[in-house]
């Protein structure tokens, strides 16, 4: 297959490109820079330089492909245009920075997925989009049949935008990723949590720390995207979860041991002071099952687990 991948030089997208190439597929990828284009070309993929707002480019690239994997994501200010930044801070004055960011993210994602879907319309070809486990129903082990909680920020807009094309002849599915997609080179949640503990001299958890986090290795996630592309069902929501529920206290305790700082309980009200923007996520109890995903696609996570990966990569000098 000829597969078009957005976010092709990102943390997850670059692993997806490598997985597809190793499986014998041809790949073209969207990247935002000339340096990214050079990286893709060295990997053996064709490169397009552009952004998610360039809908004509997305539509044309999708139409020329046999299928699309959408992993591109706006992670922060560095990923935003000047216009987006102005809108973000203007919106922050009317409802908060998180709400403003999520509105911009939803509009950008929905528009980009709409362009990709229109390029695949009436073809029966696959469109696989990245979504998230966060904010599925709390306090239970969420399954692939569950929908996101509607009154909090989540990635459900990506799923809705893709599934709108099912009735228009597109085999759309979603891969819901664990909040912790780990591996060598990770710059996501866990490195920020380690950095906060190193900076503040303490490794906290919320309350009793029994709330559960999911995790998946980057390479296992990449394999799941490939399988969803090749075999995925229209409307399916696959769970990119290698470990279904790790008590956050265990994560905090490992960090405390490796940094030689105390692990302590703090109330929710102090989470933002220590963790910054991640404060609202730390106390979530969001375990999730991958049973249906494994049975349906034959996906078997094979890489090392979160704690082994943390020991190997997350406490060296480069992680400071």
Automatic annotation (TrEMBL):
Organism of provenance: Aliidongia dinghuensis
MF annotations from Gene Ontology: aldehyde dehydrogenase (NAD+) activity
Gene Ontology CC terms, in alphabetical order: cytoplasm
Stated name of the protein: 3-beta hydroxysteroid dehydrogenase
Matching Gene3D superfamilies: NAD(P)-binding Rossmann-like Domain (3.40.50.720)
Domain NAD-dependent epimerase/dehydratase: 3-75
């Amino acid at each position: 297959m000829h597969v078009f991948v957005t976010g092709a030089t990102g943390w997850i997208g670059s692993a997806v490109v490598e997985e597809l190439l190793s499986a014998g597929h041809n790949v073209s990828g969207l990247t935002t820079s000339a340096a990214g284009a050079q990286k893709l070309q060295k990997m053996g993929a064709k490169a397009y330089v552009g952004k998610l707002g360039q809908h004509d480019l997305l539509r044309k690239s999708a139409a020329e492909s046999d299928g699309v994997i959408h992993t591109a994501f706006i992670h922060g200010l560095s990923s935003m245009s000047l216009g987006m930044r102005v809108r973000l801070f203007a919106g922050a004055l009317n409802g908060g920075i998180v709400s403003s960011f999520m509105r911009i993210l939803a509009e950008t994602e929905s528009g980009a997925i709409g362009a990709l879907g229109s390029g695949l319309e009436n073809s029966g070809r696959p469109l696989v989009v990245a979504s998230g486990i966060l904010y599925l129903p709390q306090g239970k082990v969420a399954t692939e049949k569950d929908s996101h909680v509607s009154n909090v920020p989540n990635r459900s807009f990506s799923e809705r935008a893709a599934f709108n094309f099912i009735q228009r002849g597109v085999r759309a599915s979603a891969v819901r990723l664990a909040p912790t997609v780990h591996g060598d080179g990770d710059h996501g949640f866990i490195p920020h949590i380690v950095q906060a503990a190193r900076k503040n001299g303490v490794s906290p958890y919320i309350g009793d720390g029994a709330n559960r986090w999911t995790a998946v290795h980057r390479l296992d996630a990449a394999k799941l995207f490939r399988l969803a592309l090749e075999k995925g069902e229209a409307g399916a929501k696959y769970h990119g979860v290698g470990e279904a529920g790790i008590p956050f206290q265990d994560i905090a305790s490992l960090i405390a041991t490796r940094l030689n700082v105390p692990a302590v309980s703090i109330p929710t009200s102090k989470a933002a002071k220590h963790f910054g923007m991640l404060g609202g996520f730390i106390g979530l109890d969001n375990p999730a099952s991958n049973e249906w995903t494994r049975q349906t696609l034959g996906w078997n996570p094979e890489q090392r687990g979160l704690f082994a990966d943390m020991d190997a990569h997350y406490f060296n000098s480069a992680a400071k």
